[in-house]
Design a protein that fits this description.
Distance between the termini: 44 Å
Number of strands: 3
Number of helices: 6
Mean pLDDT: 85
Structural class: alpha+beta
Strand order of the largest sheet: 2-1-3
Helix content: 40-55%
Radius of gyration: 24 Å
Amino acid sequence: MNKERESLHIRINLDAPVNGLIRRLRHANDNLRFGLACDVGSVEDVSAPSMTGITYAIGGAEIRDLDRLRTGFRSWVIASALRDSIEALLLYLDEVRKVSVLLSYGPTVDLTSDEWNATLVRGQKQFHRLGLRRKLDALKQIDESLQSEYEEEIATINRARNCLVHRFGAVTDEDTDGTDRLTVRWRKNEIVAEIDGTPTPIGPGFVAKDVTPLYLHQNVPVSKEFSIGETILLSADEFGELSWTVIVFAVHFREKVETFGLSRGVVPREVG
């Protein structure tokens, strides 16, 4: 006896994963800026007696070196924010994989329940466990077009994240790319003024004389090098630029997913 097939209408919102990523990145940026703005005036400020009368001195060492504590705290704040940002990106790629698999079937997804579970349930769980590089490779296996020109920047940001999380930000040979240093690359936007015919990046405090042409240059390549033994430290502005790079990557990937869907005959529905 033939079983009657059940149909399921699937609506895909390509903007939702990007918006979710932006919300998580904003949270990481807010926490980082707050953390970097915090300071303590003395060792006593961080060595106050416990309200319960029991103090857990892990390792048995008292806090003595305030400068070392400040540097370590700054590194910890950056590591925490960068870890959260990469985790947000990994969750975004999970959504990209789910959408891309559905689009790969074209306008009509004809799957048995077993096939659905294997591809979109168990397959999704397996993908979720992958690291950044393996996720990007797995997406290319769905279709070669599912990649971004900003992957190299994302890879170096992830290397910095690994160093901060696993080695307290102290660069070792494990973090380098065949050289004696770790190079972190990202993109930024900058305002440029034409001064005496020469384009010059400007910042706060710039005073324009007469009529000074101003331009916005977007996605300008930036890099910062850290030698072996050096500790990775980033300013709040630099971290904001790293976050911008992650967003640019995600928006570019969204365009690739939409183009992939069109190639499979999935036409976007007009809103209105």
